[in-house]
């Protein structure tokens, strides 16, 4: 059974569902809705091919910080056995190759229109259809719209004075073009978050001179990138059923058992031993959540972890002045970072560090970057300044729900929503990794949400329902839960993109459910549809 038809009067094509984005979320959404439910689906993707985040983020050193064996889909057992990896972590080209394989294997490309950006989506209350417009002039209607817009995909380019006057090359890590040659050039990198750390480490041996403009020093641990033997990979594949069971019932879903030991209950010597072992093993999320269970919530435990990393920085970095600039003093409570030799990079003669909190960036000049302590002449400026995370791509679309309310109006005081997938006044609109969804390894969260969306669409079809949207009460309760959980952690005590602090003027608000994937999955299973309003009488309890 499908809903679609063509409007005989206006000749506007109608689809059961429109899927926006061709990354991990969009590909799986098309597979579930078209291949499994038999719906008529149209996908739109602004890039020329599939990949989503991994289509755009081609910057040097781009690497997933999730272990290779769990940075993939789990839904198809044959795919898990057929596709393999070489190292403990995947580079951008490897991830893109994997997603291209998935698109071909399940014949997903045929449903997508590439090089096409959705510019508007309005809900028509008379027809109960979404009316969608693209930058190529397409106009279509759909019963459902599924947004796989990406959590970290709306690039944030700081509006520095004089940026347009620079005579050299300028790039953002999140929109990296092909053919960039940095060999022997004077390069400046602005930003030292995850992408900045990776880029800086990768390009330092290649460039003539690298100037790093750092606003906030970062806690980072080794990534632990190393080859995996065929024996190791075979053993993992043999145990995938148990592995995915553990991942989907865990907190951060990174493929390791989270610690159940408090750092403050063990001796200083035991703390050091555990941290040293984790440092040698590698992995940012492992260091924060696999060592002790209270680093993110207990100031004393957090200080123990932070102090360990600070000592490592001073051991690694030879110049004391540079080491001081690189050493954070606040809580270890941003997204956990890991690297492939970041601190060691600052021992190179061709790398220098500028603290732009001490010496503010005044402007971009034709020759380079001027700070309060002088001008740095450059051939290339790289903006590793991150993204307008979570809601950034939504507010760039003219997205309007019931009564013509825009998403910008709805989210004026911070993004709302229920379960990270739905929003009041926006019927039949689903979001994958929308506001206040799980803060985890993203692929199992994506699968969890896409499967819930697909099951919900199927349920509506079987029960002849027209619209679904969350109740205001359910949305308010979910937001309150997310806020209370976030405030119980140290993440809420410092400025971070997790709460919107990296974008000038952006409201500081909760944007994630930090209760863990296992708890999230249990919640949506137990809640059923009691937090939703359908267009018919109360849904009978199953």
Automatic annotation (TrEMBL):
SUPFAM superfamilies: FAD/NAD(P)-binding domain. This is NAD(P)/FAD-dependent oxidoreductase. Gene3D superfamilies: FAD/NAD(P)-binding domain. It comes from Neobacillus citreus. Keywords: FAD, Flavoprotein, NADP, Oxidoreductase. The keyword Cell wall biogenesis/degradation does not apply. It holds the Pfam family FMO-like. The keyword Disulfide bond does not apply. Belongs to the FAD-binding monooxygenase family.
């Amino acid at each position: 059974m499908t809903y679609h038809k063509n409007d005989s009067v206006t000749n506007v094509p109608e689809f059961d569902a429109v899927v926006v984005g061709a990354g991990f979320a969009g590909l799986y959404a098309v597979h579930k809705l078209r291949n499994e439910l038999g719906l008529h689906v149209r996908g739109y993707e602004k890039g020329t091919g599939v990949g989503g985040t991994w289509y755009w983020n081609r910057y040097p050193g781009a690497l997933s910080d999730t272990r290779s064996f769990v940075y993939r889909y789990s839904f198809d057992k044959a795919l898990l056995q057929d596709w393999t990896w070489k190292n403990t972590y995947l580079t951008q080209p490897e991830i893109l190759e994997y997603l291209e394989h998935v698109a071909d294997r399940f014949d997903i490309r045929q449903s997508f229109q590439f090089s096409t950006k959705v510019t508007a989506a309005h809900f028509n209350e008379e027809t109960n259809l979404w009316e969608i417009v693209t930058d190529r002039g397409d106009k279509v209607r759909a019963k459902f719209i599924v947004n796989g817009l990406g959590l970290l995909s709306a690039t944030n380019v700081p509006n520095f004075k004089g940026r347009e006057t620079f005579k050299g090359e300028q790039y953002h890590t999140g929109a990296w073009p092909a053919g960039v040659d940095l060999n022997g050039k004077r390069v400046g990198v602005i930003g030292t978050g995850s992408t900045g750390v990776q880029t800086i480490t990768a390009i330092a041996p290649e460039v003539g001179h690298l100037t790093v403009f750092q606003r906030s020093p970062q806690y980072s641990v080794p990534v632990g990138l190393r080859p995996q033997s065929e024996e190791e990979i075979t053993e993992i594949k043999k145990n995938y059923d148990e592995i995915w069971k553990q991942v989907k019932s865990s907190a951060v879903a990174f493929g390791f058992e989270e610690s159940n030991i408090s750092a403050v209950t063990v001796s200083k010597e035991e703390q050091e031993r555990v941290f040293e072992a984790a440092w040698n093993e590698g992995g940012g999320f492992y260091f924060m959540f696999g060592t002790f269970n209270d680093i993110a919530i207990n100031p004393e435990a957090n200080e123990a972890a932070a102090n360990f990393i600070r000592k490592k920085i001073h051991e690694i970095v030879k110049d004391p002045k540079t080491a001081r600039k690189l050493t954070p003093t606040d809580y270890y409570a941003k997204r956990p970072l890991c690297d492939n030799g970041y601190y060691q990079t600052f021992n190179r003669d061709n790398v220098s560090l500028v603290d732009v909190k001490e010496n503010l960036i005044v402007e971009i000049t034709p020759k380079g970057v001027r700070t309060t302590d002088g001008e740095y002449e450059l051939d290339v400026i790289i903006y590793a300044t991150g993204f307008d995370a979570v809601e950034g791509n939504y507010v760039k679309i003219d997205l309007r729900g019931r009564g013509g309310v825009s998403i910008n109006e709805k989210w004026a005081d911070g993004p709302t929503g229920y379960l990270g997938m739905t929003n009041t006044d926006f019927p039949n609109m689903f979001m994958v990794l929308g506001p206040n969804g799980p803060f985890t390894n993203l692929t199992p969260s994506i699968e969890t949400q896409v499967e819930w969306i697909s099951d919900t669409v199927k349920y509506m079809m079987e029960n002849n329902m027209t619209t679904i949207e969350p109740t205001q009460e359910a949305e308010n309760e979910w937001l309150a839960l997310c806020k209370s959980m976030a405030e119980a952690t140290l993440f809420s005590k410092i400025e971070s993109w997790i709460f919107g602090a990296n974008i000038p003027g952006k409201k500081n608000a909760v944007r994630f459910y930090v209760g863990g994937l296992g708890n999230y999955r249990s919640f949506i299973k137990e809640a059923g549809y009691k937090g939703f309003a359908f267009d018919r009488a109360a849904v009978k309890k199953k």
